[in-house]
Write a structure and sequence with these properties.
By secondary structure, the protein is mainly alpha-helical. It contains 7 helices and 2 strands. Helix 1 runs parallel beside helix 4. The relative contact order is 0.15.
């Protein structure tokens, strides 16, 4: 991958992750578990669900903040280190993107068939507040872009690292 393309990809990813982090932080600072449960109308059914949802969002926030911090370090270095940048983009794919699409609490799932129709591809396990639904769907658009841009780092990057390791051993 050309260094200029890689640097541009890092800059775009940095910007998107910073935006995601700001949206998540804003939401998490204004919402409470008790407020979400009260809005649901069924405390027993929703408390565990919203607890898991908020936990997943907090983890996602930490992953995104760590990733954009590391991308910032990569972009601020006097000499752009391609190997470090590729490692960070790999981490973005495998922590941030996978964490969004496969939340530990399984509070929603992706139905990729909807992505091809232009519809929202996130299917919620339970009905959520409009604010949480809107946040999740807006994040899905950003993560879909990131996933498309960083698809290389799912398999090809690891294969490249293995080849280099094997060649170094010979």
């Amino acid at each position: 991958m050309a260094a200029t393309h890689l640097k541009q990809l890092c800059e775009e990813t940095y910007t998107k992750l910073k935006k995601v982090s700001m949206e998540l932080e804003r939401y998490l600072n204004q919402v409470t578990l008790s407020g979400l449960v009260a809005a649901s109308g069924d405390p027993e059914e929703y408390e565990t669900y919203y607890r898991a949802y908020l936990s997943d969002l907090r983890h996602l926030l930490v992953y995104c903040e760590n990733a954009y911090d590391r991308l910032g370090v990569s972009l601020r270095r006097a000499r752009f280190n391609e190997e470090f940048a590729e490692e960070v983009l790999y981490q973005v794919y495998h922590t941030c993107i996978n964490s969004f699409y496969y939340p530990k609490g399984e509070v929603y799932e992706e139905d990729s068939r909807y992505a091809y129709t232009g519809q929202d591809c996130i299917i919620f396990r339970k009905q959520v507040t409009p604010e949480l639904q809107q946040l999740t769907l807006s994040l899905s658009k950003v993560f879909e872009q990131l996933r498309n841009e960083l698809q290389y780092y799912e398999n090809d990057y690891i294969a490249k690292k293995r080849r280099h390791k094997e060649q170094a051993q010979v």
